[in-house]
Each structure stands twice: as structure tokens, then as C-alpha cells.
């Protein structure tokens, strides 16, 4: 399942989009789309050795439904191998046996410019993960700010160029947006989520490049939609068919977009915009309400 033969991204090099002519003005796009380039990334991931669905804190979770943990681990390993094949670095955070959702490492904090805003979880079931991810980051030399307000890391904070898009409505508190702006010294753009299936910003919006995002309209309130339209007038708007399989829970290196395999239309749309879609199957982890991006915390700077 991991037999992707993708060209590795050598550190420090930028890989040009392979089919520049395919970038020619698909409908609704400006005639001159910037060429897409990959940059090497560093990710933290947590193997789902203790993954289970024992409680329900989002509408995807159904305790009692069978979960195949071995399959979850195999699918996660394939994701990790996909990143390695793309030339990225993956560091593995040890999971805690009593924390079945810890595989969703994106929630462990936001790391920007070599420092981190730690996570404070909305639900008591995940509370112990915050200090565990913070301790792991600190042991690696990353200073971590202990959060005062509820904030679920890269689940609700997405870095797009110099901006931090910040979700609220289900998990991360608006006060945490101000905290993030202060601690990470970034421009923070608040976006209110309204559909419980898209409870974290990273289930409703994918960062494709420093100037490009994809999102599903139904996840956002009217103010948030107006903001997204203003900031990203050429964004890829994804339909419910792709968003409903968590297609937007994707990870891009600027060129390759690793996304859930079931999001087939989104993959075709990405290819038409000059990206290289890289589908992976994380069906077991979807039972916890997460997919590619949820499993991936980017370590920046
Ligand atoms: N079961 C987890 C929760 O509800 C899933 C978290 C998914 N992570 C994410 N970054 N969206 O908290």
C-alpha cells in the first residue's frame, strides 16, 4: 500500500510542478497561476498503538463499533512512509496507553518559528495529551508556552504563509486566538465553524500553499465565509462529497497534497490547479474523526 514512487525532495531545493502546461487557467482561475513548489518539511506523528474509540466527542465517533487497531497502525505506517518518500522528516512521539486519541498529533500544539503554543483540550478525555506533547517538544529544545485558554493546536490553528487561520465554535476558544497571536507573533484570522462534523478547522479547510487554501462552505458562518472569499478569492471550494470523507484533512508541502483516498473529486481538482495529489487510506482512523492532517503536527523553524 506504500508503494508510492514519488521523487524525494532534497533538503533546500524547490521542486517545480511537473506539468506546467496543466496549470493553464482551469475555469475560474487566473490565467497565470504561480508554479507550485515543494519544500521539505519536518513532521511529528504518534503511532496509533493505543488507538480506540472509547468515548464520543465528535459525530464521527461511535463507541462500540469495531476498530481494527492493527489496520490503523498499518494505514498510519503507510502515511509515514508517504512523507518519507516525499523527502520529509518524520519524528515519532510516544503515545500514552490511556490516551486513545493521541494519534491525532496535530492537536498537540502549534509550532512556529521554533517556539510552540501548547494545547489545552476542550474535553477531559484528552486533557493529559497537552502536557505530554509539551514535554516532548521541550525535550527537543522547543520552548512551549503553557496555554491559558482552550486551544487544540493545529486542529484549529492553520499556518498559511504569514497568517494563522484560527477556528472556533466547537473546541478552541476565541481567547486562545489572542493568546496565539501574542505567543507566536503572527496575524491571526478568526473563523467560526458551525457544522459539528467539521469541529476542527483542519476538517473544513486545507492549506495548499502559502497563498492558497481549499475549504467547504457549509462549515463556516457568513462572516468567516466573507473573510475567506476576501483573503483567498481563487481558493478551491470543495463540495460535501469530498469534505464529507474528510478530504480537507490534507497535508501539502506546497506541491504534493497528501489527502484521504476517498476524496477523488478534490484530487482531480488539485491536479487541475498544478498540485500532485497523493491519496492515502486512513479508514480506521476516520472512526475517531480524523485523517491525514489530524495525524500530522508540523514542526516549523
Ligand atoms: N477524536 C479526536 C477528537 O475529537 C479527533 C481529533 C482529530 N484531530 C484533528 N486535528 N482534527 O478530538
TrEMBL record:
GO molecular function, one term: dimethylargininase activity
Class of this enzyme: hydrolase
Sequence intervals crossing the membrane: none
Keywords for the protein's UniProt record, in alphabetical order: Hydrolase
Protein EC: 3.5.3.18
InterPro entries, sorted: DDAH-like
Superkingdom, natural source: Bacteria
NCBIfam families: DiMArgaseDdahMtb
Family in the record: Belongs to the DDAH family.
Protein name per Swiss-Prot or TrEMBL: Dimethylargininase
Species this chain originates from: Pseudokineococcus basanitobsidens
Origin organism lineage: Bacteria, Bacillati, Actinomycetota, Actinomycetes, Kineosporiales
Amino acid at each position: 500500500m506504500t508503494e508510492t514512487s514519488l521523487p524525494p525532495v532534497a533538503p533546500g531545493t524547490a521542486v517545480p510542478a511537473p506539468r506546467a502546461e496543466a496549470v493553464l487557467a482551469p475555469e475560474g482561475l487566473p490565467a497565470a497561476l504561480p508554479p507550485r513548489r515543494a519544500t521539505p518539511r519536518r513532521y511529528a506523528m504518534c503511532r496509533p498503538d493505543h488507538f480506540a474509540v472509547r468515548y464520543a466527542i465528535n459525530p464521527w465517533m461511535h463507541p462500540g463499533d469495531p476498530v481494527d487497531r492493527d489496520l490503523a497502525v498499518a494505514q498510519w505506517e503507510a502515511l509515514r512512509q508517504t512523507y518519507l518518500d516525499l523527502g520529509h522528516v518524520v519524528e515519532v512521539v510516544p503515545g500514552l496507553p490511556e490516551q486513545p486519541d493521541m494519534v491525532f498529533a496535530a492537536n498537540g500544539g502549534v509550532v512556529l518559528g521554533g517556539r510552540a503554543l501548547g494545547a489545552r483540550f476542550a474535553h477531559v478525555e484528552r486533557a493529559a495529551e497537552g502536557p505530554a506533547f509539551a514535554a516532548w517538544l521541550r525535550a527537543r529544545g522547543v520552548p512551549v508556552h503553557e496555554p491559558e485558554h482552550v486551544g487544540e493546536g493545529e486542529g484549529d490553528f492553520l499556518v498559511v504563509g504569514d497568517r494563522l487561520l484560527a477556528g472556533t465554535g466547537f473546541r478552541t476558544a476565541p481567547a486562545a486566538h489572542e493568546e496565539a497571536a501574542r505567543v507566536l507573533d503572527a496575524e491571526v484570522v478568526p473563523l467560526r465553524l458551525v457544522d459539528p462534523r467539521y469541529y476542527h478547522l483542519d476538517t473544513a479547510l486545507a492549506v495548499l500553499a502559502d497563498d492558497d487554501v481549499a475549504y467547504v462552505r457549509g462549515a463556516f458562518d457568513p462572516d468567516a465565509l466573507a473573510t475567506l472569499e476576501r483573503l483567498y478569492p481563487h481558493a478551491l471550494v470543495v463540495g460535501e462529497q469530498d469534505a464529507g470523507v474528510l478530504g480537507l484533512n490534507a497535508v501539502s508541502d506546497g506541491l504534493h497534497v497528501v489527502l484521504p483516498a476517498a476524496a477523488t473529486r478534490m484530487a482531480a481538482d488539485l491536479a487541475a490547479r498544478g498540485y500532485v495529489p497523493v491519496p492515502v487510506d486512513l479508514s480506521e482512523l476516520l472512526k475517531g474523526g480524523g485523517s491525514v492532517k489530524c495525524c500530522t503536527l508540523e514542526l516549523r523553524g
